[in-house]
Amino acid sequence: MNLDPLGGTRMVDGSPSEATHRRARAHCKVSMLPETTALVASNAITKGDVLGAARIAGIQAAKRTSDLIPLCHPLLVGSVYVNFTIGDDFVEVEAQVETFDRTGVEMEALTACAVAALTVYDMCKSADRSMSIGELCLWEKTGGRSGNWRRADSADDLPSTTP
After folding, report:
1. Phi, psi of 101 (to 5 degrees)
2. What mean pLDDT is predicted for residues 121-142?
3. What pLDDT does residue 8 have?
4. By C-alpha distance, which of 103, 81, 101, 83 is closest to 91?
5. What is the tens place of the pLDDT at every residue in 66-113?
6. What is the C-alpha to C-alpha distance for residues 65 and 161, in angstroms, rounded to an integer?
7. Do 104 and 18 meet the contact criterion of CB atoms below 8 Å apart?
């Protein structure tokens, strides 16, 4: 989103950009009680398969990002991976989105991550009202005019979401 000469909002014109392979990864964390994490890990939450539902929600959210974020370009999303790491008192969410298009997929990866985390929260709220969602950030992006970027505090040994 940019401002026009009169200060109004306008959609950025992506048509001059060249279509290239683009990828983005995002992370966030759902903090919860250790007892809740144990229930998620053992698939014992009463609402059902928390991580399975959250994965589907994240994938669907990535595909619908332009419907949620004002003036965000609709993209042909090539692939979406949503994976989870279960810790003692948290579930970490990682989302990776790829496309071959004229604009990046950072917003799609961040949206996938956020909606997957919200789904974890929704499915676990009856067991733990103290949960919080935080640390949502872009982890890395590749492709496009600005090239590649990786978060400075990202570890090289983080699990990748590619199969």
Report:
1. -155, -175
2. 97
3. 66
4. 83
5. 999 988 888 999 999 999 999 999 999 999 999 999 888 999 999 999
6. 20
7. no
Rounded Cα distance between 86 and 107, Å, is 24
Residue 5: pLDDT above 90? Answer: no
Secondary structure (3-state) at 69: coil
Name the residues annotated as catalytic. Answer: 122
The DSSP secondary structure of 84-151, one letter per residue, reads: EEE-SSEEEEEEEEEEEESS--HHHHHHHHHHHHHHHHHHHTTT-TT-EEEEEEEEEEE-STT--EE-
Q: Which amino acid is at 143?
A: G
Own/partner contacts of 11-17, CB < 8 Å, gap of 24 or more, are 11/71, 11/73, 12/71, 12/73, 12/103, 14/73, 14/102, 14/103, 15/102, 17/102, 17/103, 17/144, 17/145
Buried b (16+ CB within 10 A) or exposed e, 30-68: bbbeeebbebbeeeebeeeebbebbbebbbebbbbbeee
